[in-house]
Specification:
By secondary structure, the chain is mainly α. The chain has six helices and two strands; from the N terminus they run ααββαααα. The protein has a two-stranded antiparallel ribbon with strand order 1-2. Helix 4 packs antiparallel against helix 5. It is elongated and about 140 Å long.
Length: 197
């Protein structure tokens, strides 16, 4: 069972993991055996945390063991902070351990393919609006004609002069032509300006 908890088939690898976890546990001196013995409850907790992550190989088992140790240290430092609220160094250590624990959980989720995706897909669509405005302020009392019907109704009110040039619109609805005298007021070109061939 212990071998499976570390995602390995090698007993020596599992034994190395266990020894590392035992080293970080608190120890009490046993008078009978005359040696320091790790606290059993801490050892059991660490093993259960590693097993809860169900590591599939030794690499995942190493990360799970780090997470278990980080949790235990976080609780120990948290007790110190609760007893000595003025100890700023321990407060900083507690904050760093909390960040480390959160980062380790994120990494484990990524390794197992369970990380939440935070990417967003934004689709931009371009719409083209064409506005046609025709303003005719000279006719109909200064009113604007901005629709096709108004343009069509005004088309017949523009007439032409006798020579075929467009005439200015008149104020009457009939669109009477305002005549232009093409020759009146024009002076001849002086001979000195003429180009001699």
């Amino acid at each position: 069972m212990i071998v499976d908890a570390f995602g390995t088939r090698h007993s020596m690898v599992a034994a190395a993991f266990i020894n590392h976890l035992l080293d970080v546990c608190s120890h009490t001196y046993d008078d009978e055996s005359q040696r320091w013995i790790p606290e059993e409850e801490q050892v059991v907790m660490l093993l259960h945390i590693v097993n809860a992550h169900k590591p599939r190989n030794e690499a995942e088992a190493a990360l799970a063991a780090q997470m278990a140790v980080t949790h235990m240290l976080l609780m120990k430092v948290g007790k110190r902070v609760a007893d000595y609220t003025y100890d700023t160094k321990m407060i900083g250590a507690f904050a760093n351990l909390a960040k480390t624990s959160a980062f380790q959980h994120e990494v484990m989720a990524g390794v197992k393919g369970k990380r939440r995706s935070t990417s967003q897909k934004i689709t931009v669509r371009q719409e083209k609006h064409v506005h046609q405005h025709v303003h005719i302020n000279h006719i109909n009392g200064g009113k604007d004609f901005n629709d096709r019907q108004a343009q069509a109704s005004m088309a017949g009110r523009f007439e032409k002069n006798a020579d075929g040039s467009p005439a200015l619109p008149g104020p009457e609805e009939t669109g009477r032509v305002v005549p232009f005298d093409g020759g009146k007021g024009k002076a001849g070109v002086p001979d000195s300006w003429r180009v001699k061939g």
